[in-house]
């Protein structure tokens, strides 16, 4: 193994699959909003990052590069071993699609939060609240009636 290979191996060994920074941001945000959840259910396809069993909802928190998001970071192609990385990300995307399909067929609602979406926390909080339980669960009053009939 060359020094470059050893360094790459060391770097890749540091990549976490659980308790990542994006995951911790979403978990802390949801907890502050009053939601409680289970983590990484091994009984479910894809081991969703967050499981709201009583609501039959799950959330996956994906890194843009690793899961091939269509944003700037996700579209980046490494300068070395391009064939390997394109194939790996492609397999990840296929696996993600299978997992989402399996969960939906079993009656679960699925939300994917992308790493790039963490920049706008207000928008993220609103999106999470809407997915999990609507605006009233975000601490907002229900929409007021305008008094006009439609």
| Strand order, sheet with most strands | 1-2-3-4
Given the C-alpha coordinates, what overall shape results? globular
How far apart lie the N and C ends? 71 Å
Number of domains: 1
Mean pLDDT over all positions: 84
Poorly predicted ranges (pLDDT <50, ≥5 residues)? 140-150
At the first level of CATH, what is the class? Alpha Beta
Got a strand count?
A: 4
Could you say what the CATH architecture is? 3-Layer(aba) Sandwich
Write down the CATH topology: Endonuclease, Chain A
Strand content: 5-15%
**Element-by-element helix/strand order:** HHEEEHHEH
**CATH H level: which superfamily?**
VSR Endonuclease
Overview of the molecule:
The chain is an alpha+beta fold and 150 residues long. It has a single domain (17-135), classed as Endonuclease, Chain A. The protein has helices at 3-13, 21-32, 64-67, 82-105, 121-132; strands at residues 38-39, 50-52, 57-62, 109-114. Strands 1-2-3-4 form a four-stranded mixed beta sheet, with helices on both faces. A hairpin with a 4-residue loop joins strand 2 (50-52) and strand 3 (57-62). The longest helix has 24 residues, at 82-105. The chain starts with a helix and ends in an 18-residue tail after the last helix. Mean pLDDT is 84; it is low at 140-150.
């Amino acid at each position: 193994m060359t020094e470059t290979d050893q360094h790459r191996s060391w770097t890749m060994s540091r990549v976490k699959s659980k308790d990542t920074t994006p995951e911790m941001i979403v978990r802390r945000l949801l907890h502050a909003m009053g939601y409680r959840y289970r983590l990484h259910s091994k009984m479910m396809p894809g081991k969703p990052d967050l499981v709201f069993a009583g609501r039959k909802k799950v959330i996956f928190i994906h890194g843009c590069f690793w899961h091939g998001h269509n944003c700037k970071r996700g579209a980046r192609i490494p300068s070395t071993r391009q064939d390997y990385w394109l194939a790996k990300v492609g397999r990840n995307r296929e696996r993600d699609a299978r997992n989402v399909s399996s969960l939906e067929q079993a009656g679960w609602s699925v939300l994917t939060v992308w790493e790039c979406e963490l920049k706008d926390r207000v928008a993220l909080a609103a999106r999470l609240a809407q997915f999990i339980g609507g605006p009233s669960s975000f601490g907002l009053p229900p929409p007021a009636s305008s008094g006009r009939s439609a």
